[in-house]
Amino acid sequence: MASELCKTISVATLEKHKNLFLNYRNLHHFPLELLKDEGLQYLERLYMKRNSLTTLPENLAQKLPNLVELYLHSNNIVVVPEAIGSLVKLQCLDLSDNALEIVCPEIGRLRALRHLRLANNQLQFLPPEVGDLKELQTLDISTNRLLTLPERLHMCLSLQYLTVDRNRLWYVPRHLCQLPSLNELSMAGNRLAFLPLDLGRSRELQYVYVDNNINLKGLPSYLYNKVIGCSGCGAPIQVSEVKLLSFSSGPRTVFLPAEVKAIGTEHDHVLPLQELAMRSLYHTYHSFLKGGQLLVLWLTAAPPSVCRLLTC
């Protein structure tokens, strides 16, 4: 196995390969052959998935200066070392399925980084320097032990896909709503009890998944026209026990779907989810309201909370 590994690296060095595949090699240490002499100056993509690596060498950037993609999925790495910050050309870093407990602040120096995958580790926090990754488009930190998100995450202006499923989050920072490029946000399987009211206000955000947050009883009204996953939220209730929401104006009566009350109870105050329903109801009736007097009559019959909603 060792001689085969040496031959593979030797050929890659002599022929100036840009890609090197060292997956499934049962490696416990980073191969010294990669670090000899000048290293592999032409190498751009290094694949070392499913080995038994526990750390990375300090001179990694010196020997592999042009590395663009580094795949270390399914190893036993515990700490992302400071040396990682010197890979200034790195665009993709995959450290999923390791034993990571610490990500060093130097990761914020990877200014070209576009995709960062840290899923299935033991992380309890991420350094605020993650916010310095201005080119970051994908961040997957699912299945960790995170209680909060990085303080400066909203400064990742290029972030499009954020996955934080199966952590221990109990709230979402409001500044997350400021991410201008965010298209998909997945927070399933956490401990969320509420969401920021501004979440979904951005036109770019189209997909939001909050499934299996059992304490989550309501959704912000801005999410009413987004693709939403919210199964397993709120206390389970029988649909037959729920009094369907409806609104009547003259001979017209509109019943809202039973799912509208599937999270929350009829004794709750006006929740964001009910606000969402009322907005939808208003737009439905607006097409039938021909005169100003009928509109005034409709508003007079509506609950005070709805009037506040429609006049703001």
TrEMBL record:
The UniProt keywords, alphabetically, are:
Leucine-rich repeat, Repeat
Under SMART domains, the record lists: LRR_BAC, LRR_TYP
Alphabetical list of Gene3D superfamilies matching this protein = Ribonuclease Inhibitor
Q: Which GO cellular component terms are attached? A: cytoplasm
Q: Which residues form the Disease resistance R13L4/SHOC-2-like LRR domain?
A: 105-189
Question: Which SUPFAM superfamilies does the record match to this protein?
Answer: L domain-like (SSF52058)
The protein's superkingdom reads: Eukaryota
- Tell me the protein's name: Leucine rich repeat containing 28
